[in-house]
Amino acid sequence: MTRKTVVKVAPGGRAKTAKAKPAAAGPSAASAHLLQSIVQGFSIPAFVIGKDHNILYWNRALERLTRIPMREVVGTNQHWRSFYAEPRPCMADLLVDGIEDRIPKWYAGKYRKSDLLKEAYEATDFFPALGEKGAWLRFTAAVIRDAGGKIIGAIETLEDITERMTAELTQRESEQRIISVIEGSPIPTFVIGLDHTVLYWNRALEKLSGIPAKDMIGTNRHWRAFYAKERPCMSDLVVDQTLETIPEWYGGVAKSKLLEDTFEAEGFFPDLGKSGRWLRFTVAPIRSSRGALVGCVETLEDITERKKAEQLLVDSEKILHSVLDGFSIAAFVIDKNHKILYWNRALERLTNVKARDVIGTDQQWRAFYGKRRPCMADLLVDSAMDKVSHWYSGKYRKSDLVEEAYEATDFFPELGEDGRWLRFTAALIRDAQGELVGAVETLEDCTEQKLAENSLKRKGRGPT
Q1: pLDDT of residue 129
Q2: In CA terms, which of 157, 234, 267, 402 is 20 to 30 Å from 9?
Q3: Rounded to an integer, what distance in angstroms lies between the CA atom of residue 368 and that of residue 347?
Q4: Domain ranges for the chain
Q5: What per-residue string of b and e applies to 98-137 under the rule 16 or more CB within 10 Å gives b?
Q6: What's the rounded Cα separation, in Å, for the pair 374 and 368?
């Protein structure tokens, strides 16, 4: 039988002269050309290697990605040049050699078996030697077998996912910064998603609630930190956009003056801690860049000590009010703006001016004078001690018992039917820091004593 010489298309499109072989020995020139055309037509970068690791095909998309023309690499085993700075196996090489167990050595934590193809593996990795600044590639390598099932090569496809990975990494970095801010914040904070699942639960809230983040993240049981039985937190109501129901659950709620769609409230939580805690909490919606609601952040401030201080102040004011009101000595108290804070019952009886008519006003003078003028307490509040002599010349002296206090005795013709003699003392009131907050003035009716003294004086002089 005569042998014929045929032109066979070698991998990479190079023609060579070869003696014809029986058809069963390998692919025809037409099929090889068809395979090459298919690979070249891929929009996805791809290369094919044979059993000997030499490159059979290197398509145009891969030329553009790697900037290496196929004529430089087809027929060689230097495909590694495109991806690595020094020789090492690509994933296709490992599959051709049937050493899949070596994949973890080279691609640890970056690969997985393909869900679509048998004998195929996928991986994602960063290639610093690719391009100017490196590139992220998602690549898949699959074994190629002949009709008899024998491995004859492998194909590897590569997808440049640099932009996507850069965006994802930027987002992750942004999320990590947010997490770090939330975690490091001294303000107890938690975040929930649209499904009410807890996404973040920071250390400050762990300390406040006594519940670790690992027990809360991924659940919708954030109510446990604040209530004895299940009920919505304010963030749940905001996520559900059932804003009209917020007052049903939280009295005294108010919209924030600083942020839109943000609500603030405070309340006592008897189930928080050993004796309950007062919390001031703020809830704000979290929106995507397009304005879509994606979750809610709730911050909580423990205001228990402040509330206790406020209650002590209220209690002390009540006590002071009761003490002043129970004085048998007439007294009134003004603040640093001259407004009357207290006007006790004894002073009501002495002046016939009711407390309800003067408290909150600066009209204390009405009880004693026919026209507006300062009382001694007003002069002390204004630190105008040098003017005391102008208004009470020859009638006053500094107190021997109390610092920053003056005493005086004077006749008040407008007081009562025939006027009254009063002995009065005014003293400054300062807070714990020494700041001036007001003055108290006590008044004692000494009319009878004065009349008796004057009578004795007249008798002592005798007839003239």
Answers
A1: 80
A2: 157
A3: 11
A4: 5-160, 167-302, 308-452
A5: eeeeebeebbeeebeeeeeeebbbbbebebeebeeeebbb
A6: 10
Q: Give me 310's structure tokens.
A: 């406020």
Domains 5-160 and 167-302 share a fold: yes
Record: fold of 5-160: Beta-Lactamase (3.30.450)
Task: Identify the pLDDT of residue 49.
Answer: 94
CA distances (Å), origin 194, targets 16, 263, 285, 379 = 66, 18, 10, 63
Torsion angle (degrees, nearest 10) of CA 300, 305, 306, 312: 150
- Give residue for tokens 């002089």: 461
CATH topology of domain 167-302: Beta-Lactamase (3.30.450)
Residue at token pair 């938690």? 190
pLDDT in tens, 9-33: 344 444 343 444 444 444 556 556 6
CA distance 125 to 109: 10
- CB neighbours of residue 421 within 10 Å: 19
Strand order in the sheet with 189-193: 198-201, 189-193, 293-302, 277-287, 263-269, 254-255
Q: What is the pLDDT of residues 309-322, one digit of tens each?
A: 777 767 666 666 66
Fold of 308-452: Beta-Lactamase (3.30.450)
List residues bridging with 422 in a β-sheet.
410, 445
Start-to-end CA span in the chain (Å): 179
Residue pair 239/296 in contact by the 8 Å Cβ criterion: yes
The DSSP code for 408 is: E
Other CB atoms within 10 Å distance of the CB of residue 36: 19
Q: Does residue 231 sit in helix, strand or coil? A: coil
* Beta strands at 277-287 and 396-398: parallel, antiparallel or unpaired: unpaired
* The pair of three-digit structure tokens given for residue 379, joined into one six-digit string: 């002069």
Stated pTM of the model: 0.47
Burial of 309 (0-12, 13-18, 19+ CB in 10 A): exposed
Q: In angstroms, rounded to a whole number, what is the distance separating the alpha carbons of residues 80 and 85?
A: 8
